[in-house]
């Protein structure tokens, strides 16, 4: 029986604290600065995918009958609810779940990053902390996002809870990015160190994330549907916050509630391909041989409901709704923006010039055929499966109002220097260079890139926003943009430039649905 998978519909407006730069009425003020609007849109977009609002949208409990509704499914609660979770956003998810369902919750175990409770407390986000005397036990581990002994202890506690359930019980599983490192449970006799060594060797030889996950699942007690199998015959509801492009449930945290479609032969093929089969530890050979001879074959997860409660696509849908409320014609370009930041920056630079020319009267006469062709070539090179470029340009051509083009995903940075930065700040700085190469006409342009987790690389900033004048203004301040980029030192640049005014600060958000990119185009006059 196939696993049930549902995706929650368009995000509703999340309740937010008043913004530092104005109250609710300021949103529609005609004189609001473009940068102010960009910042507001970013903060409101992140606010809509925080753990609390997402959990409240996903779960609906009738207190009188004890019926829990999760989308179109109903479950009877009568002090038979158990909870497990693993991931960077799971602390806030668990706090919201206990607030909503606490009267029926018997026991819970969650595995979260080391230091997360102290960080949340310091950031003042009390709503993301479990209450005193909570029934949920918290393990902190996976320092630096690497599996360790603390995470292993958490995983074994989660397995023990799951294995003790009956057909009358309901297991609520909370999953977010970082969950794989927080749920390490190798199948004995494989040790945690042996499993880590093997995955490091595969990664060093160029194995893809899909290939690594195939091996991880084969050697894990809980990944690849193992957790769901441990919980059988209990019903399982898995609420997933996706930090993976395309939201593949079998990839997020290595799919602990999704039956693996791979077998031992797939694993051996991967190991042969990278020349590692002969060097396998005896323990790994034992586990693979045991799985190959299992008369029951691969298990199914028919007792599981997997629901994606938060994703980049859902965040962009909310951003689009709010941008249109600000008076923009908004279009979502892609929720799968990937590739090197240099290529992504070039794409946004070309897009701004082509779209800006279309907005300039009369009727886009200033559009360069050469730049239009370059834009389409650059888009093709990025190989984005969901790119809506043609549709976006059609909207721009017909628009009589300012435009906001939206995208999201997770570009990558090729490190060359030892500076301080993150992919969002580096992307923004590179887009600024592209925008400043030649005049854009009578159109105000602003680009923003921000991480929804509030932390861009090893910095306190979530990202940055830029306008075409940045490079010229930086030169006037004695800052050479090219030198900062050569050293991957974007954060130092933005910290010094105009007193850090272009940096985005949200603090730790407690969520993560990758990055969002906003491109604003507003004709002057």
UniProtKB/TrEMBL annotation:
An annotated Gene Ontology molecular function: ATP binding
Gene3D superfamilies, sorted: Glycerate kinase, MOFRL-like N-terminal domain, MOFRL domain
Catalytic activity: (R)-glycerate + ATP = (2R)-3-phosphoglycerate + ADP + H(+)
EC number, as in UniProt: 2.7.1.31
Keyword annotations of the record: ATP-binding, Kinase, Nucleotide-binding, Transferase
Record has ATP-binding as a keyword: yes
Segments crossing the lipid bilayer: none
Species of the source: Cnephaeus nilssonii (Northern bat)
Residue ranges constituting the MOFRL domain according to the UniProt record: 403-515
Family: Belongs to the glycerate kinase type-2 family.
Residue intervals of the MOFRL-associated domain: 38-288
Protein name: Glycerate kinase
InterPro entries referenced in this protein's UniProt entry, alphabetically: GK-like_C_sf, GK_N_sf, MOFRL, MOFRL_assoc_dom, MOFRL_protein
């Amino acid at each position: 029986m196939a696993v049930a998978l549902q995706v929650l519909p368009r995000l509703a407006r999340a309740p937010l604290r008043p913004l530092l730069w104005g109250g609710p009425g300021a949103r529609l003020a005609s004189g609001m600065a473009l940068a102010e609007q960009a910042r507001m849109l970013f903060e409101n977009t992140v606010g809509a995918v925080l753990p609390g609002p997402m959990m409240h949208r996903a779960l609906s409990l009738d207190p009188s009958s004890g019926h829990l509704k999760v989308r179109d499914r109903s479950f009877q609660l009568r002090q038979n609810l158990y909870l497990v979770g693993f991931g960077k956003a799971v602390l806030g998810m668990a706090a919201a779940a206990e607030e909503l369902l606490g009267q029926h919750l018997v026991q819970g175990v969650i595995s979260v990053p080391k230091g997360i409770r102290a960080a949340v407390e310091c950031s003042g986000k009390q709503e993301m902390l479990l209450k005193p005397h909570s029934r949920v036990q918290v393990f902190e581990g996976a320092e630096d996002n690497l599996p360790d002994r603390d995470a292993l202890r958490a995983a074994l506690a989660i397995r023990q809870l799951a294995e003790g359930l009956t057909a009358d019980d309901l297991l609520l599983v909370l999953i977010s990015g970082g969950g794989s490192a927080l749920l390490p449970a190798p199948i004995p006799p494989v040790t945690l160190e042996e499993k880590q060594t093997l995955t490091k060797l595969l990664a060093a030889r160029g194995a893809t994330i899909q290939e690594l996950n195939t091996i991880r699942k084969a050697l894990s007690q809980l990944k690849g549907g193992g957790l769901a199998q441990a919980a059988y015959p209990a019903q399982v509801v898995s609420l997933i916050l996706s930090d993976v492009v395309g939201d593949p449930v079998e990839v997020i945290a290595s799919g602990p509630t999704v039956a693996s479609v791979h077998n031992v032969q797939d694993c051996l093929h991967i190991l042969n391909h990278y020349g590692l089969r002969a060097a396998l530890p005896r323990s790994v050979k034992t586990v693979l041989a045991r799985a190959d001879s299992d008369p029951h074959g691969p298990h199914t997860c028919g007792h599981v409901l997997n629901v994606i409660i938060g994703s980049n696509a859902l965040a962009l849908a909310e951003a689009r709704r709010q941008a249109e409320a600000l008076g923009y014609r908004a279009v979502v370009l892609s929720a799968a923006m990937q590739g090197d930041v240099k290529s992504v920056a070039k794409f946004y630079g070309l897009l701004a010039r082509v779209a800006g020319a279309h907005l300039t009267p009369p009727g886009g006469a200033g559009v360069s055929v050469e730049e239009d062709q370059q834009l389409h070539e650059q888009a093709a090179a990025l190989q984005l499966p969901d790119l809506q470029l043609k549709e976006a340009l059609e909207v721009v051509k017909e628009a009589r109002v300012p435009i906001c083009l939206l995208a999201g995903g997770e570009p990558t940075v090729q490190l060359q220097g030892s500076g301080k930065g993150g992919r969002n700040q580096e992307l923004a700085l590179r887009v600024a260079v592209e925008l400043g190469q030649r005049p854009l006409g009578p159109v105000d342009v602003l680009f923003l890139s921000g991480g929804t987790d509030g932390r861009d690389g090893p910095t306190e900033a979530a990202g940055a926003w830029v306008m075409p004048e940045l490079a010229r203004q930086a030169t006037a301040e004695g800052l050479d943009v090219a030198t900062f980029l050569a050293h991957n030192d974007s954060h130092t640049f933005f910290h010094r430039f105009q007193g850090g005014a272009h940096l985005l600060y949200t603090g730790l958000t407690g969520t993560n649905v990758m990055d969002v990119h906003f491109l604003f185009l507003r004709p002057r006059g």
